[in-house]
From TrEMBL:
It comes from Rubrimonas cliftonensis. CDD domains: DUF820-like. Keywords: Endonuclease, Hydrolase, Nuclease. This is Endonuclease, Uma2 family (Restriction endonuclease fold). GO terms for molecular function: endonuclease activity. It holds the Pfam family Uma2.
Amino acid sequence: MTLQTLAFKRPATYQDVLDAPAHLVAELLDGALHLQPRPGARHARAASRLGVKLGGFDDDGPGGWWLLDEPEIHLGDHVLVPDLAGWRRANMPAFPDAPAIDLAPDWICEVLSPSTRRLDLGVKRDVYGAHGVSHLWFVDPDAQTLEAFACRGGAWVLLATLTGDAMVRLAPFEEAIFSLSALWPPSKPEPPQSEDI
């Protein structure tokens, strides 16, 4: 299944998000309901491994962060579910006890997949910038890349594009240093070669 954008005779509402099938991720952008399947295994691994690599920041580590996997975020009339999001504790001192968060994160990471690429790189990026997200990362498991952006003067500025086994040391998590290759599944080992006797 691929991304579906449902057109209504009226703008979609949060009730449409709540009524969406439980096995789909539902997002509301510019009055349109977007439904996509749960992430595939490569996508999920990249997000999980990145969360592990940055986990120290969530444990009262450098900078003091709240980091969440797939939080529901309400920004104006938009309902978004990024793969990872982080809030500086200075900006969100108390952890919310609610099903959704209406404060823009300081950092978001979207893991790109064929079904979500256009939405992530298009309208979602625009919404994040318009609502004050400072840092945005795009991780692409197929291309094995990471692109990091900072929002400056309302525009996204590319900070770095990393590929291969480049070392990751990027804002706002400069203290986290790890190989980009740690996000991908290990290569399949070569089958043993039979030896002729």
